Amino acid sequence: MAGPRDQYVENFLATLPAKALPYRDRLRGNDAVLKLTLSDAGSHRLVLRDGLVTVHEGDGPADTTVIVSSADVPGLLQGSLNPLMAYMTGRVKVQGDISLLIRLKELFS
Predict the structure, then answer these.
(1) How much is the pTM?
(2) Where are the domains of the chain?
(3) How far apart are CA 29 and CA 50, in angstroms?
(4) CA angle, corner 106, sides to 8 and 21, nearest 5?
């Protein structure tokens, strides 16, 4: 049975494509694959193509991989956990093109 944190992550991933629609023009031309690996709940690939975001469960190739505990995801998304501090203290690990994360943050701002 999924706990509240797992449900938060599942809800975030399920609603992400719709939440990204208002940013479609900004996202266009920034095609990439971001893999979110939850150390306690598997992997999801967020695919950005032609201004749209799709979410696919499971492992696979990615431009950038973010490894984090599902317990830390709500804090990262709600702003109570500083992403830079989480990265510096090892709570968040990044493999691949870290500049993709910076670009995405700017595009969604």
Answers:
(1) 0.87
(2) 4-107
(3) 7
(4) 60
Task: Give Cβ neighbours of residue 85 (< 8 Å, ≥ 6 apart).
Answer: none
**CA 99 – CA 71 distance, rounded (Å):** 24
Taking domain 4-107, whether its CATH number is 3.90.1800.10 is answered by no
pLDDT digits (tens, 9 = 90+) for 60-105: 999 999 999 999 999 998 999 999 999 999 999 999 999 998 888 8
DSSP for 23-64, please give it: GHHHHTT--EEEEEEETTTEEEEEEEETTEEEEEES----SE
CB count in 10 Å sphere of residue 44: 21
